[in-house]
Amino acid sequence: MADWYGSSRSSYFKVKDVEEFKDFLSKWGAEFISKETEQTCNGCIKCLKGEPNNRCRHYLKRYAGECKGLSRKQTLVGFLGEDSLGGLPSYCEDEDTGKAYEFDDFVKELSTHLEDGWIAIMMEVGAEKLRYLTGLSFAVNSKGDVERVSIDDIYEKVWKRLWGEWTRCEY
Predict the structure, then answer these.
(1) What are 7's strand-pairing partners?
(2) How high is the mean pLDDT of the chain?
């Protein structure tokens, strides 16, 4: 029987305290990543797409075609899965108490590190040889809300629409 091997990573996002976030990732065996970015303000993105906000102090410049939007430089962080098989962090044990923690605990704790209004998106893909393929995406916000999407969701969609006969992508 073959082993499952995968790759996983997150999007980049803003956290409350970078050092505490690094400690959190270390505990879970994930690799810290970061990047400097220049991000256009969300309100400016809407304005540049033709939905000007007349309360913006740069409204007249935009109206005259002189405003290119406000942007700010910032450091965003994320992580790479680092377990032996390449998946998302899914197991951690407290050295003092011996208590085991699983993926749901990881996601719950990750949400507490996110700066208000930010979302972390995580993706994991893998395969057991080519017997079957897996792919999962998770999004968690700073409030702890979680969304999950799997590549296997296609089976439910096909079943509900009754397009015709089909088989699973596996042997």
Answers:
(1) 125
(2) 87
